[in-house]
Amino acid sequence: MKPSAPSPRRAAPGRPRTIGAILLAGTVLLSSGCAVANSAGGDTGRADGRTLRVVLTQEPPTLEPCEASLTGTGVVVRSNITEPLVERDPASGELHPLLSTGWKQTTPRTWTFGIRSGVTFQNGAPFTAKDAAFSIDRAVNSDLACNVEGYVFGDEDLRVEAVDDGRLTVTTEKPDPILPLRLSFVEIVPRTTDTGAKVRVPIGTGPYAVRSWQPGAAISLDRFDDYWGEAPAFARARYVWRGDASVRAAMIDKGEAEIAVALDPMEEEKDTTAAYPNNETTALRLDGREPPLDDLRVRRAIDLAVDREGIIDALLGGLAEPAAQLVPPGVVGHGDGIEPTRQDVGEARALVEEASADGVPTGRQITLVARNGMFSGVSETAEALQYQLREIGLNVRVRMADTATHLQYLLRPLPEDVGPVALLVMHGNQAGDAAFTASQYLLSDGPQSTFGTEHLDRRIAEAGALSGERRQKAFAGLFAEQNDSVVQYAHLAHMNGLLGLSRSIRYEPNSATGDELRLAEVRPAEGAKP
Known about the structure:
This protein is α+β, with helices and mostly antiparallel strands. It has helices at 71-77, 129-141, 147-153, 179-183, 245-253, 296-305, 308-315, 345-357, 378-391, 403-410, 434-441, 454-464, 468-486; strands spanning 51-56, 86-88, 95-97, 100-105, 110-115, 159-164, 167-171, 208-214, 218-223, 236-241, 259-260, 273-286, 320-322, 365-371, 395-401, 421-428, 489-501, 505-506, 523-524.
């Protein structure tokens, strides 16, 4: 087996332009839900030195572990409440055993994993290979329609077997060179977890357990005293959410929070912020099933109309880079030679006029859907894109949506009778391999794709079976084909994150922070007492 190695987190302590006609819009809608036990709990969110207070952009839609590949869920759940068998170091890309002790490929389609002993779930039950097998089966093979199933595993089922308490085998339908990486997305839950419905509040093996969820107000966690790993520094954690980035920043300044996510770029100069390159890429996904977006010329025109540098400089504070593909540098499959499209309004307008002359209904209203809180300046970016597309002769309206509504547009089954939609998406490839992006966003029937081509589908399948440099070259080639002959996406930017950090703590953000904010990595500043 691959030798057991300590996880890094287990180590002991230590050009300005005018965009024009941009309107500020958007209403923050908070999701609601059912109360859970101890929802009051006397939790005031006060600064007591023992509670780590985090302010998010929105209330998580759920804490269901099999949905943890969704940013809004994963930022709370992953590595805090639940854990996987395998974890990826966001800095090096290396895989490390976590709830497993190691793994080996025993046949072309079968992998064997050692299971860590001495691990207890937050309900007191011991963790064994049976729980690991159950968790994989529930997330990948069930009818729950978990996001991790589509995002990570596609339509393929796995055959899982607990050989004994300390050993697990996983067999794939065909050889899979990156199965351990895929399993790093499966959060482990007890085998008593509901299989008929998704859970709202999970039980896991992580360093924190859910104490309460006050709908619309806060989520509180307590340190899990029987945690198998190093105990986190803070006894409690409390998540609240504020849709306005300036409010989130002010909470740091006023001592009302220790961590604030997705701050406005204007806050960058403060000593209480940390900028970091994350793995998020923004793009417009164009629904090629509906006219006028079913016409390649119109889609190309939209790509040519976008002023990427202007949006980045004027609205994103320069904290981004123009994008030409859905994955940033550092991800296996990123094509270094693929250049971002340069804005050319004249050529874009000519393409729209040509399509119109051929009978394409270019005057039909296109709805540009964006999610509140997706990133700082999202509503202004949506308005800028609306202005730029109107400049080339397209009829565009903006709809700002909450998370639940945006997901209805994002994931299959896609909504019917809504007309042509240009959906603003932000994709984070947390795993560092383009297979996860291509299977989701580029396949004709991908869970987050509206259309595609048979040729591109074949190339995606072929690339997924390769390894090493051949894998890199194959995925880079299919991203180039997307830009040349499909144009389902008009790419905008590879994003940077800006985190607010109180002077009372020490935390180093990394490329995974936006998806997986590991509370156990937060320490009190020197002289501060948790």
